[in-house]
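Listing S7. Sequence submitted for prediction.
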Amino acid sequence: MKKLLTLVSLLVAASLVLTACGGGGGSSASDLLGAIQERGYILVSTDPNYEPQSFLNTEGSRPADTKCPGDALTTAEMQGFDVDVAIAIGDSLGVETCFATPSWDAITAGSWADKWDVSVGSMTVTTARQTVLDFSMPYYYTPAVVAVAADSGIDSLEGLSGQAVCAGAATTYEAWLNNDMEGLGLPEASIYAAVPADVTVVPLETDQECAQAIAAGRKDFVAYVTSETVVDANLAASMPVTKLDGAVFSEDLAAAFDKSSTLDTATLRAKVDELFTAMHSDGRLSDLSNKWFEIDLTTSPNQ
C-alpha cells in the first residue's frame, strides 16, 4: 500500500506540470472536438486513487504505439468505472483515451490552461462549479454517506457531534461538513441530513485518503464523508471502518468542461451528451455500474 501511495503521489505531482497537450495545444482546428480528432487522442483528467471509480492498474504496461503524451497515463495503466466511461468517449470519437491526474481542487477550480480536455472523475454538478465549468448530462448518481473508524464506538450521525471528520478538499463532502450550502450547490430534495453540531473538518487531498489514513492508524479524526461506492470498496478491502445507516445527500455526477478553454467545447459536449443518452438507453452505463459497483446507479433517486 505504501509503495502504491508513493507512486500515486508522484503521478499527481507530475500531472501538475503537464504541458499544454490538451485543449488548444497549437492546433489549427476551430473547436476542441476538431483538435482532439486531429491529434488522435483525448486527454481526460481523473483520480488515480479513487477505487472503484478510477485507480492505477498495477499489472498494466504502457503500449509502445500509444499516442498519449509522455506525462499522461494510457488505458492499459488505469481501470475503474470512470475510466471505462472515459474510454467509451474516446471510442465514440475514434481516438485514443489518455489520462491526466491533477489535484481535485485544480480540476474543480476551472482555468485548466488547456492542459486536459475533459474531466471524467465522478464530479458532482453544483451551482458554484457551473460558474467555471460546463457539464454534460449526468452519467450516474451516488449517495454520500459517513463512515467511522470501526473502534470509534459511534453508530449514528448524532454521535459525530463535537468530533473531527475527514473529507476530500474542495469536494461536496467538505462543503456539506462546513454547512456551505452555496458550495454544495444541490437542490433541497437531494439533501437528506443536517451536519452534526460542532464538527471539526479535516480536509485531505482526496476523500479516499481519509479511509487510508484511518486504516494506517491516524487518530485525529474518527470518520469521513464520501460516496457510498467508495465506502463499499473500503469495506470490501477489509479496511477497519463501519458505514453509518442512511445517505446524507445524493449527487448527480457528470463530465466537466472548462469554460475558459481556448477552443470552443460546445461540439464536444454535444457528442458526450449524445453518447451518454445512448449508453443510458441501451444499458451500457447500467452494465458498467453493475460491473464496478455491483448495483445500478444510473437512475436518479429524485426522479
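Caption to Listing S7: primary sequence and predicted C-alpha cells for the chain studied. Residues 289 and 296 are 5 Å apart (CA to CA). The longest strand covers residues 140-149.
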